[in-house]
């Protein structure tokens, strides 16, 4: 046996000390890294605490751990976060998922520099990944902290400046965010699958909130093709996306809107976008020491979005699962037999088109095969599309003689009112049903374009809060539209009439407000078309016999393309003196769904106050919006509510005014969407941001050359009256 010299013993002791010291650093449970101070201006550490290759950050409660790891059979290294006390290493976040460390050694580290940059270096001192302070962080962070919910944050000691929850990878943890945030560089918080179990790089599947801002969850392939979607958030949960051991919330905070969830302290759960295309919820079982699957979508092929294509239907008990509706067959028989049903189905017998002459210069006709039971004079389906329009609409065709008889030859006694389009009459059909008949006046300088627009648009729309177009009559030079009859006429006849407004109690007004909201949401997001109304006002909201609201008058509406967010017009249309015109539309001709939101906000404030926005006069304010704002900032907002209105509490009226003020903010970006508005109404626990000063609070005008004057509704089915500038 060779004796050990004293010097060797000392070296051995030092090696053991160093090894123990390194091990001690690993098990120390540090929850943060910090930046150090430098005396020479260089970003070198003197007293700072980086995270080295053999160290781990551990959250204070011991729930999560952060450090370097190598997944599966890979030889690459990454910085990630995983559960601390779960036997199966489960990574929930990866920093450098697209840029792995291929040269891993003692020099690999994660540093927070004195300049506030978080930088990952490999063993050759090469930058692999970074969070740069120069790209928008609000202040200089001096430490990075791993929290007990799995969120890694950069902080200046007072506030969070950057957080991993804003940049999820494939896992959604409790308190994490899935949504949209315009203040971030990466504006969408998406889950994106790993490429495979050995490679955390972004895979082909992703999961997140509808990019249009709808409170709805979707799954995509390559972030373009929709694979699956939940139903729209209803204020409490999602259909087909149950709250399994979780409580979801929809949050709107400034430029951010997102979903989050929480769970009991005893439940360890997560949602994962898997590399094979499913969103799974898993719960950790201490008894079995494994993750248990409790929820998965798409649950089967029929849950996938549009799996059977146009005119196809899915039945999971059938083989094949997809079929075609009666009168249709697969577009491609070869693809259908290979289980590729995305092409859908086409008609077995093509539609027959024919030109029946020039008698009616504004039409083409499309003849559809119908059963003999449908072949009646007033209900014969004739699809008509006005010249210049590419889209075909299907409308019942009424004869002029039947309409003349229904209105007693357009008797003045049946006249309901008149607008720029022409007169509107009440009619009684032979089957006893009442209708409203809008007749284009031969004297009207406007109307043909609006008639064409309204026919093409409203015939395609079906919603309980939109007025229903029953048919048309285009004979003998007449151009007539027939609508369902609204016995209570228009909203303005109630809320602005001192003798009738008492009929609208709080419950009824809320019913009207939320009905209008639902109708606008349908137009903006849920109909087959994206439609901007452009002329929403009290006289264009009709009331049925139960005081349910129905939006009318689509003569000025515009269809937006799927990706179109804003349009411009050189022709400012609508009622000029009406404050519902948003500032960007009134002054620049720009309009978008946020223009309708502005109009809705004005209408909401009118309904709550019982006062018109036009011609409003007050000792201190020259506009209704200014009046609401002054009461808001002086904390006297309840004085804004109609004095004839008894409210159930002070909380609800204040919240509705708050929403109205958010809708009429000057910048379109600050205004909520209609889906946001409905979420604010339905979820009383949702925190609302403080509104900014509304537009048009300085004077009663709409801007240069647009002067406010009085205007009255004259009919139950109005068309906007063009007032001079």
What would you note in describing this structure?
This protein is of the alpha+beta class. The chain folds into four domains: 28-237 and 250-291, Agglutinin, subunit A (Orthogonal Prism); 312-347, no CATH class; 352-484, Phosphorylase Kinase, domain 1 (2-Layer Sandwich), CATH 3.30.200; 492-682, Transferase(Phosphotransferase) domain 1 (Transferase(Phosphotransferase), domain 1). It is built from eleven helices and 43 strands. The longest helix has 22 residues, at 6-27. The protein is globular and about 95 Å long. It starts with 5 loop residues before the first helix and ends in a 43-residue tail after the last helix. Mean pLDDT is 77; it is low at 1-7, 10-29, 37-47, 353-363, 365-382, 384-392, 569-579 and 699-725.
Superfamily (CATH H level) name of the largest domain: Bulb-type lectin domain
Q: Could you say how many structural domains there are in total?
A: 4
Overall pLDDT metric? 77
Helicity level, as a percent range? 10-25%
Give a count of the beta strands, DSSP E runs of length 2 or more: 43
For this structure, the CATH topology of the largest domain is Agglutinin, subunit A
The main sheet comes to: 5 strands, antiparallel
Q: Which range does the strand content fall in?
A: 25-35%
Report the principal-axis shape: globular
Q: How large is the radius of gyration?
A: 32 Å
Short description:
The chain has 725 residues and is α+β, with helices and mostly antiparallel strands.
